[in-house]
Amino acid sequence: MIPLMVVGASRVTRAQQAATVYKDPTCGCCSKWVELLRKEGFAVTANDVRDIAAIKDKYGVPQALRSCHTALINGYVVEGHVPLADVTRMLKEKTAIAGLAVPGMPVGSPGMEAPGVNPQPYDVLAFGKDGKTRIFASHRGA
User: Fold this and answer.
1) Which CATH class is domain 4-139?
2) How many CB atoms lie within 10 A of CB 90?
3) What are 8-51's pLDDT values in tens digits?
4) Measuring CA to CA, how many Å separate 64 from each of 10, 20, 90, 124, 128?
5) Please, which residues bridge with residue 120 across strands?
6) Cβ-contact 108, 124 below 8 angstroms
7) How far apart are CA 104 and CA 79, in angstroms?
8) Long-range contacts for 89-93 (Cβ within 8 Å, ≥24 apart)?
9) In whole angstroms, what is the distance from residue 67 CA to residue 69 CA?
10) How far apart are CA 32 and CA 81, in angstroms?
11) Is the distance from CB of 61 to CB of 99 less than 8 angstroms?
């Protein structure tokens, strides 16, 4: 039996805590998201890459869902500034998808906080290997 560990408000097994993140070496918001992952107990390997599009192509991130960084977590692709509560929910529920994405870089999403600026509403989209998407979670901002 794999021991369980509390991560945020959810329970995630130790086997689910490894994350590999591909990001641009100069992107500060990507580094903030990596730090958030680490604070939640994930063992993160951050890889700085210049050709991030090649990574997104390799892991099947649909063009319309792309953002600034791509993570691989327990067999799932996590694209962009996805809230960690949504990542944890996906892992806990063992959702039958290829991954989650927050297209673009909405202000107020994890790593994109801006003091004094109201957060933008945004959706976290689940996507399949066939490219089909659905709303996984909605975040309404201020």
Assistant:
1) alpha beta
2) 23
3) 444 445 444 899 999 988 888 899 999 999 999 999 999 999 99
4) 30, 22, 21, 13, 13
5) none
6) no
7) 10
8) 89/10, 89/137, 90/126, 90/136, 91/10, 91/12, 91/16, 92/10, 92/11, 92/12
9) 6
10) 10
11) yes
Q: What angle is formed at CA 42 by the lines to CA 36 and CA 45, rounded to 5 degrees?
A: 90
pLDDT number for residue 35: 94
Q: In the beta sheet, which residues pair with residue 123?
A: 138
- pTM assigned to the model: 0.86
- Residue 117, pLDDT > 60, answer yes
Helix, strand, coil percentages (3-state) for the chain, rounded to 5, are 25, 30, 45
Q: What is the DSSP letter of 65?
A: G
Length of the chain equals 142
DSSP E strand boundaries for the chain: 4-7, 10-13, 18-23, 43-48, 70-73, 76-80, 99-102, 122-127, 133-139
Tell me the DSSP string of 4-17. Answer: EEEETTEEEEGGG-
